[in-house]
């Protein structure tokens, strides 16, 4: 798992990767411990269920309200940002976005970029794009830095290096940076601090993501604990923010509940160490801050999700990661199994719009639909409902027009016929009862192997008599009267 | 938050439904329909029979329409909407014939009636009305016993220690995860112990268990481990799917520990041992 | 067609025939649970900030420079970045001169480019004012300006912040609305709720990731 796998070259083999991950005891332990702790922290951050539910509902209403007037809001945002001196760029594809970023860097003859945490830049695979053009693009979030140093992808959207333990990080720092080995987390962090501090100072350009873009005031809001986001957006002479078009909210006050939902759901913190509101480049009388600030607004499939009112709800997401923290599947297989930028439940519902459902055909099925994700999502995205919808899109006839990009990848004539047979059995009472009769009378002949089921279970043996039989006899005997 | 807003356009931006108020329960009816569910029908029929007995003990007459089969959930969760809908329509017709309250000894099938039938028939306004009426009169067994019948259970069994597994549908769709606990609390001789990661899914998920056997298997292994580590002598659950999953796994692992349907457990407790052996 | 035109066009098409949802903001949800008796605000802020390794001192508005000297000396720090153009900077300077402190006072009085190396590697501590505080989350609000630029509260390993007790608000919403932030924000606003930290390795909390290792808050009550 050490090579970066671009989204576009995924092998659609979720099961194979899951099997490997499940066999890795250390990895499973790392995830279980981490997810348990994140779940507990979240629960403690919302001691009052009514308060929590009220806030989630408000979060949902704010995001839905924003989506219901998204084009107008984006125009308002652009106008306000422009008034504030921030230059706005639009990109339909990741190629366009990378090009825009590259052009801005070129114009400044930049060669060193330092990056705050940004999932959209991961989506763009910006590091690779810039590296191919001779520009060093260094991650500065500790977790992202570790992952980048090891040529990996983040395994969690909030905790990118959660799959690694201190020993593994120590070895990595030793091998790549020549640092003496230590499993003391404080010392490891100080190594990162020293190395990156020089980079912040020297960088020509800083790149960041955006948590919320406020249309009313033309403000970009970023939350973080480390200070690397502040460094990246303040120390270099140019700041480029990249974000998806869904991150805009109407009013400044909207960020109050949204930030609270975000930091409490993600980390169980009442607020992150830093909340950074950027409303413009350095003014003539100011002494620091970037001389130029740019915002790149990226589509990359979001307008596709937006086109479908049910799928549009996916764009409520504020990237808190709570859905993966609470997901029993994610906890067991870890982020890399998903083979995409966004793992876990949110990944399953957003990736099809970006890469196409045919690139991730197993993902909608990799869920027991237990509902834990939907229960915790701070903006109330009905994730299980959307997974179910994707399952429908997955098995549609590929010859027919598709509603979701890459739909129909799991179409199988045989399976369709099996379900037709199942339908017949369950809509014709006489047939169903004959089936019950046969299954119970010939129970001894029940196969000892029942496909994948018997990998984990003993072979199912029908009862001696069906409930249909038992109930009929019982109700007959006492005339259906209460005993 | 209750500003009224209605945009009928099908492409209108959606908001989450208003939070469900606590369910309002009707007076106990004279008769009900039992919807057995296909898993109970074939694999745990005695649990279905015990559910009937428990209801009769409360003076409720039980109907069991012989035409019933499956609620349609397997096809629905597999993405086969049309097939699910055909089966759902059939059950709807059968259950509408008497119009009686419907009691279901499985959280996930009750959840199918209450929450997924409306989604299946959203595009048929006339049927949707019938579906909503069905949702309104569908009860999970524990819910019906506790909230509608206001059952009082006198324990006649020997002291025992058990773990309770609640299905995800009961917990997150039906809001009935506390009902079974309350019922068990009425039994003097029964101590319910918590198990590790109690709210976590057992890994069944219908066809998930055969489409993703590796992940599902890891989940059920963890679940069975924590059940056995809890100090309980057995597990009870009010969901046939979870029961099949958990017991099948335990048997495969050659463990002696087993789970049982709550209906059978309750019936046995209030009648003393060996009450369940009929048929 | 431009990317902008395409994106906006697609979004508009998808919304054809729909009406925007009304604004359903409910300010009670972000204020009611976060209201405190005036006397409890300091205690709330203090306990939350201390829980994340912030050192909080309550002192009088006329004797705090003494405490600053003490804190610096205790840590053997040799310099402090402050803003002599501001009232608190002047007060500090006056005290340090009068008492002949060894600590060198530095000013951020030139563009960062002119002294980046020194700022990043040689400045040991900084002292800034704040616009106020927030009791609900244990937060300082900073509006950097010419005299106390953005990096001043970020780069030096120790940050000392002055917070007037009278400027502690119950919650962010109240503060933002009562001061009408929406009417115009400075280029950068910062909410700071502790020293820099990370839990990126094994979820073990480590302080001093990229920003200050130490945050010291002096809550100033009227003399
Ligand atoms: S889908 Fe919801 S829970 Fe998951 S990351 Fe997005 S906002 Fe958080």
UniProtKB/TrEMBL annotation, chain A:
Domain 4Fe-4S ferredoxin-type: 307-337
GO terms for MF: 4 iron, 4 sulfur cluster binding; metal ion binding
InterPro entries: 4Fe4S_Fe-S-bd (IPR017896), 4Fe4S_Fe_S_CS (IPR017900), FTHF_cligase-like_sf (IPR024185), Helical_ferredxn (IPR009051), LUD_dom (IPR003741), LutB/LldF (IPR004452), LutB_C (IPR024569), NagB/RpiA_transferase-like (IPR037171)
Transmembrane annotation, as ranges: none
Listed Gene3D superfamilies: Alpha-helical ferredoxin, NagB/RpiA/CoA transferase-like
Entries under Pfam families matching the protein: Fer4_8, LUD_dom, LutB_C
UniProt entry tagged with the keyword Signal: no
Any one biological process term the GO annotation gives: lactate metabolic process
This protein's UniProt keywords: 4Fe-4S, Electron transport, Iron, Iron-sulfur, Metal-binding, Repeat, Transport
Record PANTHER family: LACTATE UTILIZATION PROTEIN B (PTHR47153)
NCBIfam families xref list: LutB/LldF family L-lactate oxidation iron-sulfur protein
Protein name as it appears in the record: Iron-sulfur cluster-binding protein
Automatic annotation (TrEMBL), chain B:
Pfam families: CCG
UniProt superkingdom: Bacteria
Species in which this protein is naturally found: Marinobacter maroccanus
GO cellular component, one term: cytosol
GO molecular function, one term: oxidoreductase activity
Name by which UniProt lists this protein: Oxidoreductase
Cysteine-rich domain boundaries: 32-114, 162-246
Coiled-coil zones: none
Automatic annotation (TrEMBL), chain C:
Region of interest (Disordered), ranges: 1-23
Pfam families listed in its UniProt record: LUD_dom (PF02589)
Protein name according to UniProt: Lactate utilization protein
Domain LUD: 43-220
Species of provenance: Marinobacter maroccanus
């Amino acid at each position: 798992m050490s090579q970066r796998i671009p989204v576009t070259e995924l092998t659609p083999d979720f099961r194979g990767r899951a099997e490997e991950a499940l066999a890795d005891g250390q990895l499973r332990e790392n995830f279980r411990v981490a997810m348990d702790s994140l779940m507990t922290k979240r629960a403690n951050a919302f001691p009052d269920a009514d308060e929590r539910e009220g806030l989630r509902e408000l979060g949902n209403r704010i995001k839905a309200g924003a989506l219901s007037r998204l084009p107008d809001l984006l125009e308002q945002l652009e106008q306000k940002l422009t008034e504030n001196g921030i230059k706005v760029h639009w990109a339909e594809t990741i190629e366009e976005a990378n090009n825009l970023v590259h052009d801005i860097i070129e114009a400044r003859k930049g060669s060193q970029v330092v990056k705050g945490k940004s999932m959209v830049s991961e989506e763009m695979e910006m590091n690779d794009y810039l590296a191919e053009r001779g520009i060093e693009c260094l991650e500065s979030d500790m977790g992202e830095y570790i992952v980048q140093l090891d040529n990996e992808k983040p395994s969690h959207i909030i905790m990118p290096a959660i799959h690694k333990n201190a020993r593994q990080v120590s070895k990595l720092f030793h091998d790549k940076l020549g640092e003496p080995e230590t499993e003391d987390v404080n010392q490891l962090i100080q190594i990162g601090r020293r190395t990156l501090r020089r980079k912040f100072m020297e960088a020509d350009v800083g790149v960041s993501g955006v948590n919320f873009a406020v249309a009313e005031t033309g403000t970009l809001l970023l939350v973080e604990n480390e200070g690397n986001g502040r460094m990246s957006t303040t120390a270099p002479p140019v700041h480029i923010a990249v974000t998806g078009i869904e991150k805009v909210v109407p009013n400044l006050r909207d960020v109050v509940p949204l930030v609270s939902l975000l930091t409490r759901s993600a980390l169980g913190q009442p607020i992150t160490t830093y909340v950074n509101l950027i409303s413009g480049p350095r003014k003539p009388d100011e002494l620091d801050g970037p001389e130029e600030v740019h915002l790149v607004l990226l589509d990359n499939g979001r307008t596709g999700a937006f086109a479908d009112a049910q799928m549009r709800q996916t764009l409520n997401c504020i990237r808190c990661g709570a859905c993966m923290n609470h997901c029993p599947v994610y906890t067991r297989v870890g982020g890399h199994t998903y083979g995409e930028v966004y793992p876990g439940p949110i990944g399953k519902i957003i990736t099809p719009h970006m890469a196409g459902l045919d690139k991730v055909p197993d993902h909608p099925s990799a869920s027991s639909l237990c509902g834990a994700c939907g229960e915790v999502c701070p903006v109330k995205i009905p994730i299980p409902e959307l997974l179910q919808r994707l399952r429908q899109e997955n098995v549609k006839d590929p010859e027919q027009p598709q509603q979701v990009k890459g739909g129909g990848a799991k179409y199988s004539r045989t399976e369709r016929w099996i379900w037709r047979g199942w339908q017949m059995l369950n809509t014709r009472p006489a047939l169903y009862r004959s089936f019950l009769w046969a299954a119970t009378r010939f129970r001894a002949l029940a196969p000892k192997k029942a496909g994948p089921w018997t990998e984990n279970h003993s072979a199912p043996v029908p009862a001696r008599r069906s409930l249909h039989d038992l109930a009929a006899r019982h109700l007959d005997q006492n005339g259906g009267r209460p005993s | 938050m209750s500003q009224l807003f209605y945009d009928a356009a099908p492409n209108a931006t959606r908001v989450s439904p208003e939070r469900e108020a606590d369910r309002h329960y009707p007076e106990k009816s004279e008769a009900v329909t039992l919807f057995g569910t296909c898993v109970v029908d074939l694999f745990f029929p005695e649990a279905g029979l015990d559910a009937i007995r428990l209801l009769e003990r409360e003076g409720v007459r039980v109907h069991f329409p012989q035409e019933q089969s499956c609620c349609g959930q397997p096809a629905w969760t597999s993405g086969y909407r049309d097939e699910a809908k055909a089966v759902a329509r059939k059950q709807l017709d059968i259950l509408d014939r008497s119009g009686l309250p419907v009691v279901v000894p499985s959280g996930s099938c009750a959840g199918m009636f209450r929450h997924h039938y409306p989604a299946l028939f959203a595009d048929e306004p006339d049927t949707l009305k019938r579906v909503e009426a069905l949702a309104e009169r569908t009860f999970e067994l524990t819910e019906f016993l506790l909230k509608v019948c206001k059952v009082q259970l006198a324990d006649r069994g020997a002291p025992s220690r058990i773990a309770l597994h609640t299905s995800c549908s009961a917990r997150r769709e039906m809001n009935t995860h506390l009902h079974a606990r309350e019922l068990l609390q009425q039994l003097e001789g029964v101590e319910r112990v918590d198990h590790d990661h109690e709210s976590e899914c057992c890994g069944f998920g219908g066809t998930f268990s055969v489409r993703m056997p590796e992940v599902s298997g890891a989940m059920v292994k963890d679940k069975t481990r924590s059940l056995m580590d809890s100090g309980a002598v057995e597990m009870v659950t009010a969901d046939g799917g979870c029961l099949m999953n958990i017991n099948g796994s335990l048997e495969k692992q050659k463990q002696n520990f087993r789970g049982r349907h709550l209906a059978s457990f309750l019936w046995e407790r209030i009648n003393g041992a060996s009450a369940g052996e009929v048929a | 067609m431009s990317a902008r035109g395409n994106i906006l066009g697609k979004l508009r098409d998808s919304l054809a025939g729909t009406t925007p949802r009304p604004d359903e903001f409910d300010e009670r949800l972000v204020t009611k649970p976060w209201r405190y008796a005036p006397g409890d605000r300091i205690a709330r802020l203090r306990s939350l900030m201390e829980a994340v390794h912030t050192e909080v001192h309550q002192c009088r508005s006329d004797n705090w420079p003494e405490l600053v000297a003490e804190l610096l000396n205790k840590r053997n720090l040799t310099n402090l970045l402050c803003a002599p153009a501001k009232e608190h900077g002047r007060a500090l300077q006056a005290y340090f001169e009068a008492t002949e402190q060894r600590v060198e006072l530095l000013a951020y009085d030139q563009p960062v480019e002119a002294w980046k190396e020194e700022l990043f590697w040689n400045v040991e501590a900084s002292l800034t004012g704040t616009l106020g505080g927030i009791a609900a989350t244990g937060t300082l609000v900073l509006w950097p300006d010419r005299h106390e630029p953005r990096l001043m509260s970020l780069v030096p390993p120790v940050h000392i912040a002055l917070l007037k007790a009278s400027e502690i608000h119950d919650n962010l919403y109240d503060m933002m609305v009562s001061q009408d932030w929406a009417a115009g924000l400075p280029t950068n606003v910062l909410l700071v709720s502790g020293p820099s930290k990370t839990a990126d390795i094994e979820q073990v909390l480590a302080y001093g990731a990229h920003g200050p290792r130490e945050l010291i808050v002096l809550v100033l009550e009227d003399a």
